Amino acid sequence: MWQEKQLIYKYFQSQNGMEISDGIEIIGTSLFIKKEKILLINDIHIGYEGVLHHKGILVPRYQLKEIIKILADIINQVHPEKIIINGDLKHEFGRVLKEEWKEVLQFLDFCLKRVQEVVIIQGNHDPIIKPIAEKRNVQVLREYVFEDTIITHGDELVETKANRVIIGHEHPAITIREGSKWEKYKCFLKGKWNRKELIVVPSFNPLLEGTDILKEKVLSPFLNNITKYEVFVVNKGEVFYFGKVENI
Q: Which of the residues 47, 93, 138, 187 has an alpha carbon 20 to 30 A from that of 128?
């Protein structure tokens, strides 16, 4: 099945990525907004490994290094002037773990050396992100608006006159059969919410696979009916158009 999808849908892939909307291109698990030269990444969840360790689940502590490597490749490809982190930069809800504090600053330092500005949009995992962001003079907002687009995390509905809404929070993915095994792949979604175009961006953390939108209950209040949403699957840096949810 996966091999057939590759043959059918790879045709829609552009040289660098794929346009999901006018002037907005999918690059890996990020979005590049061309005119504004904004690179948008979602749901990094720095410190996730540490939380697993505290629960007795041992996983190698390499995710931050891997995230930075992936991000560096994207930056070198599209040369953004601004990076927007759309919520859940850190993982732990009510406190800042020692590892999180150190790794968040390390991540922000990496970004600030490569772009003119970094903006954090506060997510539901970020109630106390401001003390860390202030160490690097990074602005923390509830939403970011440019032209006719609003970027918000996606855990709470917003009132807006913008005609395009971009969210994270959901970590969308789909499970696909590949030979005799099943694999989960991250994906972008594009559909309509309140007659506005809605784009859902997956998690930038490679350790977090996400919610299987074909089988699991969705989390974001923006996504009350996703059958008509279009699906853009990401696999090893390539993007494949899979049509609408109802046809998969």
A: 187
